[in-house]
Amino acid sequence: MGRFTPAVLGIVILAALAFLAGSVLPNGQELFITKGAFWYPANPAFAVWQPLTYLFLHDGLGHIAFNMLALVSFGVPLERQWGTRRFLVFYLLCGLGAGFVQVGINAYQFGVLHQRLIAAGIPQSTIDTLLATGETLAPSEPALRSALLDLYHIYATPMIGASGAIYGTLVAFGLLYPNAKLMMIFLPVPIAAKYFIPLLLALDLLSGVTGFPIFGGGVAHFAHIGGALIGFLLMLLWRRRARPGGERGFAAG
Predict the structure, then answer these.
(1) Which residues contact residue 78 at a Cβ distance below 8 angstroms, ignoring those fewer than 6 apart?
(2) At a CB cut-off of 8 Å and minimum separation 6, what does 244 contact?
(3) Residue 17: is it exposed, middle or buried by C-beta count within 10 angstroms (0-12/13-18/19+)?
(4) What is the rounded distance in angstroms from the CA atom of residue 226 to the CA atom of residue 134?
(5) Does pTM top 0.85 for this prediction?
(6) Which residues of 65-98 are buried (b: 16+ CB within 10 A; e: fewer)?
(7) Which residue among 75, 184, 238, 247 sits deepest, i.e. has the most Cβ atoms within 10 Å of its Cβ?
(8) Run of H or E residues at 157
(9) Which of these, 14, 9, 16, lies nearest to 61 by C-alpha position?
(10) Local confidence pLDDT in tens for the 253 residues of the chain
(11) Would you say domain 6-241 falls under CATH 3.40.640.10?
């Protein structure tokens, strides 16, 4: 199988097939996003399978190419060390965790915005109309218009992409190979993984908290952080299970 390992190859094929089908079928992209993206749970488009299927959908050639390149680069060494079953479990758990963390943050932000709008005198009927149709009479105050737009954005913007699961994979790779040299696109200087990964996560957290688009717009930063967190916790759990007699290192399946 050469450079690929079974789980990584399977994930790449599924993502590629979904991308191609969405590109060539009539209304394929719209159908895949409607049915398979991870929608805000209060949105009627939400379905119980979406916390898994969103991982295999991508928006544009650059999006899927970057994610699959990262998956091959960091996932293949992990799968070779752990085995296919353990890697696949790890990858999917990181992807699920990433999605739920992002949705949890969205739910908190939605609640804050909703309370703010109600307190400012915006009728619930106006909010309901906005969420149902995307249209409503905008209030005169810019801050309230912005809050309504943010509320609708949370409600009506689904999440797609493997980035959260790949961030978990990246964390595992960094823990196993801390001195491996990695590079950022905008900083083409080799940096050891033990420094590169915390820096990348710090930039994502900064973008998520401030809204400043370091990596461009439309990025689910807290999904990245969530995937990395789940990956780190899984590595700690497996390490403890693998050290009943004080052995060092992380478990290999």
Answers:
(1) 87, 90, 169, 172, 173, 176
(2) none
(3) exposed
(4) 29
(5) yes
(6) ebbbebbbbbbbbbbebbebebbbebbbbbbbbb
(7) 75
(8) none
(9) 16
(10) 457 899 999 999 999 999 999 999 888 889 999 999 999 999 999 999 999 999 999 988 989 999 999 999 999 999 999 999 999 999 999 999 999 999 999 999 999 999 999 999 999 998 999 999 988 777 778 889 899 999 999 999 999 999 999 999 999 999 999 988 887 665 677 888 888 888 888 888 888 887 776 666 678 888 999 999 999 999 999 887 765 444 333 322 2
(11) no
* Count of residues making up the chain: 253
Q: Name residue 39's amino acid.
A: W
Q: Which residue has the tokens 């590109």?
A: 23
**What would the two tokens of residue 124 be?**
């619930």
**Three-state DSSP class for residue 205:** helix
State which amino acid sits at residue 26.
P
